[in-house]
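CO-FOLDING WORKSHEET

Operator: S.A.
Ligand of interest: fe (ii) ion
Run index: 212
Mode: holo prediction, single chain
Checklist:
[x] sequence pasted
[x] SMILES validated
[ ] output reviewed
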Amino acid sequence: MDYISDSVLSKKQKKYLEDLKKDIRSKMYPELYRHSISTLKFAEELAGIYIFTSSNKKSSMIESFFKLCISCILHDYGKIFRYEELVKIAKDEKIAGSEFELNSPSLIHSFAGPYLVKRDFDIIDEEILNSIKFHTVGYYNMSINDKILYISDKLEENRKYDRLENLRKLSRENIDLCLLEVYKSNIIYVLNRNKLLYPETSRIWNNICGGK
Ligand SMILES: [Fe+2]
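OUTPUT RECEIVED:
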């Protein structure tokens, strides 16, 4: 485990995370497991910069960091389920907010994530569930943990696309600017492929730009 986890988490917290990793390793295909762990690794680095700051209270930093680790490990848990299965769960449990979410194979794993994580891991913490739910599309007024997960998911070491090194550098210098650039890249990616844009995107984009 990384140096931050090693030095700040309690024995019990470390054991919980190790058990969680073992558990998902047995459930996920290797590539997805590797991505989840690399997302955690990148997030730990950003946590060292943005969570463990002198202005935060130590106990709240550790609690926040522990939640971040859980969100990272489980953020793509929904991907181990087939699309049809996720649609059925979303309909049965009324967890998709709109038809758009229901009809989007690339988004539904995140919207179904909170339900699945609650059901299979007994996790009920709203901050963790929220980070997982919106790690694909972001949302209005993201917390520092939400931002770190959103960015780490897209910039972890296994990802490969143009400008990645620049974005990684930016993430260490200014997380808000990095969020803006990563969010912008996602919008451009969707538009360039003539795909449907998540309806909340303009509101989230305005918020990330510092607007209302
Ligand atoms: Fe992911």
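REVIEW:
Residues 3-153 form a domain with the Hypothetical protein af1432 fold (CATH 1.10.3210.10).
The mean pLDDT is 92.
[x] output reviewed
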